[in-house]
Amino acid sequence: MKKDLKGTCIIGQSGGPTSVINTSLLGAVKAGLASSSITRVLGALNGIEGVLKDELIDFDKEDPNELELLRQTPASVLGSCRYKLKDYNVDDKDYRRILEIFRKYDVRYFFYNGGNDSMDTCNKISKFMIENNYECRVMGIPKTIDNDLAGTDHCPGYGSAAKYIAQICTELALDARVYPNGPVVILEVMGRNAGWMAASSALAGIHGVGPDLIFLPEVPFDLEDFIEQTKEIYAKKKTAVIVVSEGIRDKDGIYISEYGSDLAKQKDSFGHAQMGGLAAYLGNALKRATGLKVRPIELSLLQRCASHSVSKADSDEAYMAGYEAVRYATSGGTDKMAGYKVVREKDYYRCSIEFVPLEQVGGVEVHFPKEWMNEAQTGVKKEFIDYCLPLIQGELDYVKEDGMNKFAKLKKVKA
Amino acid sequence: MKKDLKGTCIIGQSGGPTSVINTSLLGAVKAGLASSSITRVLGALNGIEGVLKDELIDFDKEDPNELELLRQTPASVLGSCRYKLKDYNVDDKDYRRILEIFRKYDVRYFFYNGGNDSMDTCNKISKFMIENNYECRVMGIPKTIDNDLAGTDHCPGYGSAAKYIAQICTELALDARVYPNGPVVILEVMGRNAGWMAASSALAGIHGVGPDLIFLPEVPFDLEDFIEQTKEIYAKKKTAVIVVSEGIRDKDGIYISEYGSDLAKQKDSFGHAQMGGLAAYLGNALKRATGLKVRPIELSLLQRCASHSVSKADSDEAYMAGYEAVRYATSGGTDKMAGYKVVREKDYYRCSIEFVPLEQVGGVEVHFPKEWMNEAQTGVKKEFIDYCLPLIQGELDYVKEDGMNKFAKLKKVKA
């Protein structure tokens, strides 16, 4: 592979946003604009769909000051998609279209920022280009609040989500103590299969005010146990804060959230039945069993878009991942994801980039390690705190406008 | 009334917390500790209940550095109550007990931080003391995220809640635009009778990304209109952000949230029915009528305890209200609430304290002015933006610990 491959690069964002997904984009854009190998830096609107539809924008036309604001701009500024490419041995229509677009713009670099599906997409595109003798370097930039990607110590976006959840959890726990008999707060956080998000709430507890019970999808959930454990805590503390992963399942693998939706379907035939989410379901079950006052809270989109609560460590690392992915490609590398390699020692933390083959990442989900849970499996051990704490350090120095965070308004000039 | 009344002061917190209720407490405590008229500064645990139960703590025993953290400590640090004193002409048992406690500690100053019920409590206590020839100066310090108190331009706590809601609303609106066909986000905020909280979401819109429709309790809510208006917006934007006050009512005055709870009761007899809140109810109604994807989000406790998002303006004013209430009392004043008087001119804002008779505040609710709503009554006019914007300016310089905001841990030594 020659080192001096010259041509256009395309950068795309995929899957659900994180608070720092635009920071990785900024890193990649800045590296692209600085590189002598990259002739044009384009962005794909709505991920791979933007390539297929020839909806590309030119980053050279953007105001550099506005681009800097990407560090504090919530959601995916290029838009996202959940489009899944087929196996090209079965149907190569999309791939031929991508090749057509790559030829049209002389695209020699493709950077895709997403989760494990996106790494799979990258891998497929790269292989197709090789088989069709089109030289193009393809790199994955990781991103997910779920922290479930293989080949990396942790994922860009997780630290900020963890910081937000931990902060909120302290605030809720203190609020729940205001009245002599407080409510049971049930906080539902994202995480369909992996408990990293729910576990991060435990950081709130290191100063004495945090969640009392944490339920992860890795541990079979039992409704009766949950009620008993909550009652015990309430008897002592006159309040309780419970954190649940949206993906908790019973011993038969059935999602607890489906207990609720099955009932919703059932009631729909009566006319107007409606459902809250998992937190509401558990709250009602607890209320019926104990008579306690319950406050079910579903964090919903807030946990992935709360860019007012970005971790500086996460932001800096996300920028580095974007930037280094481009540097690696322009130095001749391809087919890798820019993962994190970390040194953690007492009071010392260093994160650098390690390039991981895409095929080791696509389709793999990394679960929360059982050995980091406490004996009752309703909380975490110090090992997790030591792992997670460096990821939530520091704050952004936000640019403000009228008392609110200023967000980037890109011109999005068509390429 | 003599100017040099010497004795103990008691400070109490009442009702739901705000992000700056502890900052008013700090202001009052610091003024009390600095005053030569006040011999001891005591705090009542859980408001007036702490007085009745003789559960008082001594602020002189607290570490001054820890006290400073009150500016960034969520929830009511002394605890709160919703205890309502009876009319003493009907039953004066509680009042006699309060007098007994006041005598025990030589209490000559009583400061109560709360909403309009609390101002009523202050007023009753003051009158009882006068009738019983016990000299005691009684002052109210306002507080409520609802912004519905009479006798003040705005309420301590409202600015921070407004700042949080506006910030979140921008983040949610940007997140909702990530996919080509976004969800309808329905954000439920507090405000049983007054729409100030919901209205504050409009601040998000001044930079182009905010709520599309805002429904206040002051305007009769029509479910069909809501569905039609949302459909129209969605047709144009492929997403919509709707903000609703928890207290919206139909033309017959029935709370829309009760539509849901009536159904809940009805379904309960079948066994397991459960309900989300108002946002979930509206979301389901919209989904049934239009098939659109909906994301109902109930901000719940977050909007009153999100002390990670304090407005500096609100914080400074809340401190001033607490401090000035004490200064006024030690100068001979009594039976007043420390309200805000504001000068607003183009690019100029000044807030000072105006003392308002307690009887003008107790039991009165100030509604959102109809003349500040747009013609369709689904949004606000510039007059409101000009009113509210100064209240959300500036940020605290937070003291951090392990990447999270440090909160005050008081010793709470019994008096």
Topology readout:
2 copies of one chain form a homodimer.
Chain A: E1 7-13, H1 21-34, E2 38-44, H2 48-52, E3 56-58, H3 64-68, H4 93-105, E4 107-114, H5 116-131, E5 137-142, H6 158-175, E6 184-189, H7 196-200, E7 213-215, H8 223-237, E8 240-245, H9 256-268, H10 278-290, E9 294-298, H11 302-305, H12 312-330, E10 336-345, E11 348-357, H13 382-388, E12 400-401, E13 404-405
Parallel strand pairs in A: 1-2, 1-4, 4-5, 5-10, 6-8, 6-9, 7-8
Antiparallel strand pairs in A: 2-3, 10-11, 12-13
Helix pairs in contact in A: 1-12
What is the domain total for the residues of chain A?
2
Counting helices, strands and paired strands, the structural category of chain A is alpha/beta
CATH topology of the largest domain in chain A: Rossmann fold
What is the helix content of chain A? 25-40%
How much of the sequence of chain A is in beta strands?
15-25%
Walk me through what this model shows:
2 copies of one chain form a homodimer. Chain A has 415 residues and is α/β, with parallel strands linked by helices. In chain A, α1 runs parallel beside α12. The first copy, chain A, has 2 domains: 219 residues, Rossmann fold (3-Layer(aba) Sandwich); 148 residues, Rossmann fold. Chain A has a 7-stranded mixed β-sheet with strand order 3-2-1-4-5-10-11, sandwiched between helices. In chain A, a hairpin with a 2-residue loop joins β12 and β13. About 3% of the residues of chain A have low confidence. Helices cover 35% and strands 18% of the residues of chain A. The first copy, chain A, contains 13 helices and 13 strands. Chain A is elongated, with a radius of gyration of 23 Å. Chains A and B meet through α6, α9, α10, β9 and α11 of A and α6, α9, α10, β9 and α11 of B.
